[in-house]
Amino acid sequence: MQRIxxxxxxxxxxxLGIQTLSLAATTTNTTNxxxxxxxxxxxxxxxSTRLPVVTTTVNNFRxxxxxxxxxxxxxxxxxxxxxxxxLAPEKIGVEFxxxxxxxxxxxxxxxxxxxxxxxxxxxxxSRRTRVIIHGFQNNVNEQWMADIKDSLLLIEDSxxxxxxxxxxxxxxxxxxxxNLRVVAAELSLLLIRLVKEAGLKLKDVHLIxxxxxxxxxxxTGRRLGGQxxxxxxxDPAGPDFLNYNKAVLLDKTDAMFVDNIHTNGKTxxxxxxxxxxxxxxxxxxxxxxxxxxxxxxGLSGFFSGGVAGVACSxxxxxxxxxxxxxxxxxxxxxxxxxQSEFSLGKCLDCEPGGCSEMxxxxxxxxxxGSRFINTRAKAPFxxxxxxxxxxxxxxxxxxxxxxxxxxxxxxxxxxxxxxxSEEKLKSGEDYVxxxxxxxxxxxxxxxxxxxxxxxxxxFGLGSGNTVFxxxxxxxxxxxxxKQYTFCLPTxxxxxxxxxxxxxxxxxxx
Length: 509
Ligand SMILES: *[C@@H]1O[C@H](CO)[C@@H](O)[C@H](O)[C@H]1NC(C)=O
Ligand SMILES: *[C@@H]1O[C@H](CO)[C@@H](O)[C@H](O)[C@H]1NC(C)=O
Ligand SMILES: *[C@@H]1O[C@H](CO)[C@@H](O)[C@H](O)[C@H]1NC(C)=O
Ligand SMILES: *[C@@H]1O[C@H](CO)[C@@H](O)[C@H](O)[C@H]1NC(C)=O
Ligand SMILES: *[C@@H]1O[C@H](CO)[C@@H](O)[C@H](O)[C@H]1NC(C)=O
What we know:
Blueprint: H1 6-16, E1 32-35, E2 53-58, E3 61-66, E4 70-73, H2 89-92, E5 95-99, E6 107-109, E7 129-133, H3 143-155, E8 159-164, H4 166-169, H5 173-198, E9 205-210, H6 212-223, E10 230-234, E11 257-262, E12 282-286, H7 300-303, H8 312-326, E13 332-335, H9 339-343, E14 356-357, E15 369-373, E16 384-392, E17 398-408, E18 416-417, E19 423-425, E20 430-437, E21 444-453, E22 467-477, E23 483-487, E24 492-494, E25 498-502
Parallel strand pairs: 1-2, 7-8, 7-9, 9-10, 10-11, 11-12, 12-15
Antiparallel strand pairs: 2-3, 3-4, 5-6, 5-8, 13-14, 13-15, 16-20, 16-22, 17-18, 17-19, 17-21, 21-25, 22-23, 22-24
Helix pairs in contact: 1-5, 3-8, 5-6
The structure holds 2-acetamido-2-deoxy-beta-D-glucopyranose (5 copies).
């Protein structure tokens, strides 16, 4: 077991802004004063062995100090949540629950004083340590955290720590944003204790945080000088973070490898909860990264009360991460300039820079930068990508929806919607849809195409035509790179009738 040098520990404590003396257990009572003493920091009494709780208010500068975790102020770069400073650790109620294959019941870990929680636990530094952290309005008992923990322990013998801070995460949003700084300070102290007492190596640590938990992970990584092995941000929260300094948000300086899964990166006014810009080594944009299929998100989603208040698209990020742990489907994510290009089928190719795999296995790939992936609307979310191009022939414009079923050597897909629902379809145009199927069909041998005209509204007013002229359909398989062409001998699709077409051997019509 490798021991960490004490001088290195001292360096970390300096990074943490923690005075060594505050780590000593004492019986002195905490004092609480409000002072207006100029801009210098509140002085700690030489005889006191505890850090007093002091609130300093001068002009706009405010600071709060708590024993063990240190001081928190609102000067730049920590002015992203200007009016709010964190509550006391007792009010935030941080809990660390350790699970291993040896203990199904959790063991509580603490970082304070001389307790023996770490020494008496099943924590084993020869193994990976995965830490799961929730965000706004969640708490330690979230089922999604238990599910991720269970999946991890099924595939590997690791130390899994679930971090709960429900009391601090269930007040107002601003209060939760402030409180996460204390959660990060406490988690850093726990990790330092694990290094010191159990031989943990920071490179073996993987923090997995959702929403504000992603930024909690980032702040923890920053406090530990970016030495943590990996941080996965599951839809890192946008409000109070987007466009702020990288010191306050999860970014690539916080760990040796940082991967973000973006599922709800819209502005607050549009009802988004996630950050929309790339900040990690690899940023995965899922279905464009703004909203998710199968979700009806509204502005109320993120800020309404209760667990259900965490919006569907925002929560999809942890569902995807969970599925990725044990899925045989590869979650292939492609390099692309933006989602418009991706939706046009222009990026189902791993060049330039290589593809990556969204989720648990992202660290197995060398790809860096933004990567794009489409998923299905419900579990299993992962699918194989196919770009389907409908080449419209010459005839009348219409309004309707086109579906395609692929039949291959290994199986068939469901009927997948290629055009937008009830889209205006114009003569002579090409319509491209990037669709996903939970199974890879192998060599595509035939397809079935179906056209449903728009029914119109009152008395069928504005409905689509019964026929729509189509010459050919092209299919490109993203995962295999193969391209197929299918020809329509009738040169048209008829409302509600399926046309089954064999692959064109020459690739031409
Ligand atoms: C510490 O505080 C508690 C309750 O606030 C009080 O009962 C106790 O007397 C105090 N101890 C000292 C040493 O001041
Ligand atoms: C500190 O004092 C303020 C003002 O009297 C009070 O509201 C607050 O609860 C106190 N905090 C602690 C941690 O005792
Ligand atoms: C505010 O907090 C930061 C981070 O702990 C610290 O580096 C900085 O010196 C503090 N600013 C003041 C004016 O105390
Ligand atoms: C810690 O884990 C290693 C590797 O899995 C194992 O060989 C060792 O026996 C474990 N130590 C204890 C105390 O369980
Ligand atoms: C997407 O990228 C393409 C190619 O770089 C560019 O021409 C286009 O303007 C971009 N579209 C958006 C919406 O940014």
